[in-house]
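User: Please predict structures.

Assistant: First:
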Amino acid sequence: MRTMHFIAAATVWVLGVSASAAPAHGDAAHHGAHAPALKKVQKAWGIAGDARAVVRTIRIRMTDDMRFTPDRIEVREGETLRLRAENKGQVQHEIVIGTAHGLEQHAEMMQKNAAMEHGEPHMAHVSAGHKGDIVWTFNRPGSFAFACLVPGHAQAGMIGSITVLPRKR
């Protein structure tokens, strides 16, 4: 019996270590069941949301023609959304939300180091045939962007826009 407990504990530990050590653009998911909770940090485009506060889900299809469908999203300030990225292609894709300038800088870093580790709540890395979610509270009005920052993908047109309309007064 003690052997069974040891094997189960060792398996959980190995799974936890492998989930937390997943490469940024490999086949492993970044937000698995064993991943540590991500710190919520206010960004210009909002803050990581609580899944219980989601008011709607927007499905975003990613394909190997380097396009998102839809590529334009409109939300109201204060809304918490689930952006469900569905990779319908044959290669790894990701969706990262941010400012156009910030995404451009991040894409440049990715060109230099495609294997760099990162896994923030405003990112979802999605293997071919899989889905990934971003739960985000858009608490600041403005124009923002989303892109696939796998080297070459955004440059080929895999970008989109998010318009956050001011709260109704």
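Second:
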Amino acid sequence: MIDDEVLAGLLRRVRRGPARLGPPDGSGDGSGEGGAGRLVVVDGPAGSGKTTLAGHLAAALAAPVVHMDDLYAGWSGMAEGVDRLGEQVLAPLAAGRPGRYQRYDWGAGRYAEWHDVPRTPFLVVEGCGAGARRFAPLTTLLVWVEADDELRLRRGLERDGAAAREHWLAWMAAEREMYDAEGTARRADVRLDGLGRVVGPDGARVPPGTVA
């Protein structure tokens, strides 16, 4: 769930922000797509509400969404997933070409079908690690979504089952280490809590109009 005013503010920031994803003159693969696109990144710890927010943004912007869950090679694949986002999706788009990635099937434990990521005016990427520092020059808006560990773990186990508890605890430790190194929360343009409300650096709620 996200406040309508908060969502409207995020959309204004995206639409007014610089288009950084791709050559500004539309050069590239000759597809006829012109100009650079606007990349919206939704990052934050697992279970905090990133996927829900990304869905709202993508629907309003008529944008495709790339989910980091499709790029990780399972529970130990966080770093590899971030590399794949750069190599298979963002680097080609930045060069004026479509992106293309192979989805990882967690149930089967292997890579599955390929997905094309066309050059579009807007692209939304959501998931842990998507806001890596190396992607900042391509990003129009970085949104950080956070929630307390207890809530996130409860949401995760409701989705994945109690048997996934140790996987979740290991993942939460790995993401803390990554976020400390990347400084993602500190670099975010906007920070939201798990209910889609705007918060400051100290985690305290601030007025929705702060987003605008």
